[in-house]
Amino acid sequence: MNGTQTTELVIFTLLFLAVAVMGFMASRWRRAADLEHLDEWGLGGRKFGSWVTWFLLGGDLYTAYTFVAIPALLFSSGALGFYAVPYTIIAFPLVMLPLLRLWSVSRVHGYVTPADFVRGRYDSPILALLIALTGIVATMPYIALQLAGLEAVLRTIGLNGSGFWGHAPLFVAFVVLAAYTYQSGLRAPALIAVVKDLLIYIVILVAIIYLPLKLGGWSAIFDAGQAKLSQPSPSTGQPAGSTLLTANNQLQYATLALGSALALFLYPHSVTGVLSSQSRGTIRRNMAALPAYSFLLALLALLGYVAIAAGVKPIVNGSTGRADSNTIVPVLFDNQFPAWFAGIAFAAIGIGALVPAAIMSIAAANLWTRNIYKEFLRRDATPREEARQAKLASLVVKVGAVLFIVLIDPQFSVDLQLIGGVIILMTLPAVAIALYTRWFHRWALVAGWVAGMAWGMYLLYQIPNPSNGKQHFGGSALALDKLSFFGWAPWDGSRVQIYVGFVALILNLVVAVVATLVLRATGVAEGRDHTRVSDYHATRVSEETKPEAVAST
Q1: How far apart are CA 369 and CA 387, in angstroms?
Q2: What is the pTM assigned to this prediction?
Q3: Dihedral sign, Cα of residue 329, residue 330, residue 333, residue 336
Q4: Mean pLDDT, range 179-194, rounded to an integer
Q5: What is the CA radius of gyration of the chain?
Q6: CA dihedral in degrees (153, 243, 421, 92; nearest 10)?
Q7: What is the spatial distance between Cα 204 and Cα 349, in angstroms, rounded to a whole number?
Q8: Which of 65, 113, 270, 292 is the most buried (most CB within 10 A)?
Q9: Quick one: how far is CA 121 from the chain centroid?
């Protein structure tokens, strides 16, 4: 593919500009009395109903990750990429009750972030600071994944320069995203998410019907996938993958699915989407209906095999000189569809990247403002100062995400999300478990966080990236033979792989349990609980609390 695809570029640009204008106009949608208030800028006034919340959470959770990263993983590795389907199915019933509790206590106390809840639950600014920092850092690679998806589209269109210009799409995305997020806050992605989802529905339904008919049916597609994946990889000499799980990746598949399900609603952007809902009933309805998105995700994932059957070749990155697996689906659409429809598909992917990136940057900015700036730097900050800090912080987070993708350069873009998952899982004891029990001692939770985070980062550092020759941070799948405990290696020589986040979380919980027992035995004092979570779950008093009252607290 040479040169710029003019028709695709024009259609993509027009649709992209249209939603950007919507982002700027969103500040007038459901106009707030004062947008210079964190509840209004960062949570949309906590007034979103069922339909808006549906599209917001869908736009929040189904992103360039689903349109670009998962098909690319199936294209390169096979069945392992399907882990994303069961984890999204089990996530919603798994987290519905905890989210209802978190919404209730946040509504009554005016909490904006999960770290706000931890601060009230354990009376510990240090623990809340760790939760806030974890959320900010974990969000950056997730935003980077969205920017990688947008970059893949522009590269397919023909904007594939080298050197500085090789990453120019990231900077363009940063400027557009930063501008409308700064002005409109959460209202911008909430409004744009409706358009984004409608475009995605159209593109996927057309693709999943038309492409199999054109390529000889699903049987031929799966046969082509197995034939390609069974060929030895040039870097390892082993088959690249399989359309069925193997003995070496079954454990990885299971731990990936479970770990990802546990992590999904620990991300600050997921919590932001939930806290913007107007009632518990809105959350219940959405948690019951959102698994329908998993059907869409499964169809998207299959495009990885469709690309194999269509003979798609990934585009070579003009900056690195290596094939960019993220371009698999864009190239498939460019080769198999008329230029006008490919342009619409490219716009769907691009918009599907910007919507969640906006929500993520807002959520990370809320953490900075409430749990770092106001807690440690300016306790008497006014609501206007909080909103201004959040707006500035959202810009910094996007810069960090750009640097993350430029400097880390993982084997598959999905690893950006999975590395973020390793990080955010370390907040599970202090956030999710704390919704049901306060048994853990606050300093034990700090010790568990430190141990799990350090162990997780060390294990990620041990994972090589064969695609670019780097020896570290090449992904999140760890061979068991790299696991040792003070020189004891029980799985020496095993090539069975496991998700690093799962291993780190186990250590986190073990350390937290042991430290709690020790601290209780020695009589170390605990802080006061300001939340009384069980009361809210029993009485549902939060249903009677109006958003206006919350905003004034």
Answers
A1: 8
A2: 0.89
A3: negative
A4: 85
A5: 23
A6: 100
A7: 11
A8: 113
A9: 26
Q: How far apart are CA 407 and CA 413, in angstroms?
A: 13
Give the span between the Cα atoms of 273 and 60, in whole angstroms: 7
Element at 103 (helix H, strand E): helix 84-109
Q: Assess whether pLDDT exceeds 80 at residue 8.
A: yes
207: closest CA among 276, 301, 327?
301
Q: Measured over all CA atoms, what is the biggest interatomic distance in the chain, rounded to whole angstroms?
A: 72
Measured in whole angstroms, the distance separating CA 205 from the mean position of its chain's CA atoms is 24
SS3 of residue 337 by DSSP: coil
CA atoms of 260 and 356, how far apart (whole Å): 17
d(C-alpha 42, C-alpha 181), whole Å:
10
Lowest mean pLDDT among 140-154, 167-181, 287-301, 502-516: 167-181
What's 290's DSSP letter?
A: T
Q: Bigger pLDDT: 4 or 385?
A: 385
Kindly list the distances between the CA atom of residue 323 and the CA atoms of 45, 115, 301, in Å, as whole numbers in the listed order: 44, 40, 20
Secondary structure class of 543 (helix, strand, coil): helix
Cα 405 from chain centroid (whole Å): 14
Positive or negative, the CA dihedral 118, 123, 129, 134 is: negative
* Measured distance between the N- and C-terminal CA atoms of the chain, rounded to whole angstroms: 57
Q: Whats the size of the chain, residue-wise?
A: 553
Pairing type for strands 497-499 and 323-324 reads unpaired
Helices assigned H by DSSP within 383-541: 383-408, 414-424, 428-431, 442-461, 500-522, 533-539
What CA–CA distance (Å, rounded) separates 138 from 115?
14
Neighbours of 118 (CB within 10 A): 27
Here the tokens at position 9 are 């570029």
pLDDT of residue 470: 64
Backbone φ and ψ of 53, nearest 5°: -65, -40
Q: 414-449: per-residue pLDDT in tens?
A: 777 788 899 999 999 999 999 999 999 999 999 999
Q: How many CA atoms lie within 13 A of 294 on its CB side?
A: 17
Q: How far is CA 429 from the centre of its chain?
A: 20
Residues with Cβ within 8 Å of 432's Cβ and at least 6 positions away in sequence, in order, are 95, 98, 262, 266
Residue 6 CA: distances (Å) to CA of 31, 324, 334, 345, 397: 38, 21, 12, 15, 33
How would you classify the pairing of strands 323-324 and 315-316?
A: antiparallel
> What is the C-alpha separation between 498 and 134, in angstroms, rounded?
22
